[in-house]
Request: fold
Amino acid sequence: MSITKLFEAAKAASPAIGRASTGQKNAALEAIARKLMDNKTSVVAANQKDLAKAEHDGIASGLLDRLKLDDKRVEGLAAALRDLVELADPVGEVVRGRTLANGIKIQQVRVPFGVLGCIYEARPNVTVDIAGIAIKSGNAALLRGGSLAEETNKVLVDLIQQGLAESGLPKQSVQTIDEFGREGAQALMQARGFVDVLIPRGSAKLIQTVVTESKVPVIETGDGIVHIFVDASADFSSAVPIVVNSKAQRPSVCNSLETLLVHESVAASFLPKVAKALEEAGVTIHGCPQTAQIIACEIATEEDWATEYLSLDLSVKVVSSLDEALDHIAKYSTHHTESILTNDIANAERFLQEVDSAAVMVNASTRFTDGGEFGFGAEVGISTQKLHARGPMGLQEMTSTKWLIRGSGQVRS
Amino acid sequence: MSITKLFEAAKAASPAIGRASTGQKNAALEAIARKLMDNKTSVVAANQKDLAKAEHDGIASGLLDRLKLDDKRVEGLAAALRDLVELADPVGEVVRGRTLANGIKIQQVRVPFGVLGCIYEARPNVTVDIAGIAIKSGNAALLRGGSLAEETNKVLVDLIQQGLAESGLPKQSVQTIDEFGREGAQALMQARGFVDVLIPRGSAKLIQTVVTESKVPVIETGDGIVHIFVDASADFSSAVPIVVNSKAQRPSVCNSLETLLVHESVAASFLPKVAKALEEAGVTIHGCPQTAQIIACEIATEEDWATEYLSLDLSVKVVSSLDEALDHIAKYSTHHTESILTNDIANAERFLQEVDSAAVMVNASTRFTDGGEFGFGAEVGISTQKLHARGPMGLQEMTSTKWLIRGSGQVRS
Reply:
């Protein structure tokens, strides 16, 4: 089949999945979860093929781990689909409405986008996650999961389509375009009229390519050069655990801490304490010259301030004031998450107002920027753009709206 | 000054306008309104220059009328700014919020985008409209108003900047890039990191160019091939005035009717009635062969169904069923506004659900798709895309959100 036929099939499937009842969509999610559980062996076998090829090609071990699906991970994917069943259906929700002076009733209601595109890399779990979110939000999905996971994605999409068909929904509601390789990804970015919104998930490079090349609307999910500012009035007993948690609890994710800014008035007392705790967590510190006078550390370069390590590395800088902290953040932040640790109301409020990021925090770990933690139940990604969605995106963010207008013969004068 | 300097100045101005109090922003709007009233003569004189040049270049009369500003129109612009003063400030509005189980309080609040770009053609009123909306919503604005209105826009932006400065707001909050010509428009579309959202207003060609070439996020404001379906159960006494109002009240705007679909069971009785009323309003009918058997009309070509006339022309087609009407709409609609005239609940609900347009109506004139009619007070345009905003856009649609997270030492487990 040509890729245009696949696009047309997605568009043709979208009204049916868009109008499906919540019960029908939930039945499909349950059916897909069952298919996954009943076919663990074939999923894992396909994944072994991808893994063998990737190992043969000398792919890095971090990537291999993302690529890998074992029995337990497949069970996790099925469980995530069942969790989606419990979530409220966003379609049909009334966002706002009123009766105009002339008696016309207007209502803004949530409707599916139509067709979601997703471009990602070497993460077969995203195939099931996005398919599930698309189904629950009434959207058709076109998935480009990358050549590394092609065998696994093929089996997964086949099982998803079986589950859809069993529940009376069009199986073309979820399709993979992996077979078309890079040209498929290019075609997806050009597919105006077929794809309503395109979501890239993966490396900064992948996201930049999609954002700059796509002719269909994109939601940018971004990398996080995340900052914490330890203010002069910070409570050390909570500041140390917050810094360690933000950096070390799961360093490979976008909401983990990359740069710690410390007010100079507390640098001499705070840095040794936090450095000890960070060392115990295995963190390597890259400090500014002032930091290096207080604790043992590597010397940070200009590049360090602009680096998303995604590892147990942390940049540390001593600043003379809240203003200097805000300036540093304005210069290097990727507008994902920043947190201030303080007991000063005025400084907390200034930080909340002036930091231009998707999530701005006071006295909390940056790891809380997360759809699950926010109570969204499912997360499509974390948007670092300002249009449509900002911060963690759940089912609601996968919908558009339309205005329903009910009159009784009114004309405009 | 180079265009990059202008972009940098807009970005530098955006925090100050973004944090300005409602009172300060309203004072600026009042000051600009006063400047316009006090300098009507110089605005009109500059406009005369643009008009003379346009006439000399043989510009069409419709365009000349859009370009023209006389005393009365300048007064209208000042009045529109004063109307903005009365509207609620969207910045700081809490969209949703909750306290998590761990005691963390999360709030999603409205914040300005930062810098709005606008590309439009030969409409100096848009300069003042967009500047006012940008100021009230806390955004800086970069305006590309086209060479035809260059002299007028220069004077208008100068007055706007004087009003901003008098109110203690940075005058670079509103800037024109007209002096850079087409290259300026190109630069605006490429200005990632400087422009947060770009809004094209004007011809379908202009909008398509911006949508496909821009590397910054765009909100598409679209043309309207607007349909009304007169169902078998329609009440003729309201259907005739609704059709006439939708077509003829202001044919040059995007929410005016372009194609009338009539159920075959009432075609013989309805068409003569509506044709008579349309004729009295000066409307020319382009009918399908079945229509032409019932009333005198021109014969519609395939092209007519896909044409936004924006004039006193109307395509008319007889259809055999609601399904045929829905199919025709799916094929030719630009997803702006469609209306069904019916007394049948099931058909009304199907139409509301299945028509994929920004505004879908029952028994009302399509002319009601309008920010003013919806009670938004100000209108940036009508979005025909699904991302971020759909339908009439007011101040709220000119904002993004951010999450404020207030903890007391929480870490993630």
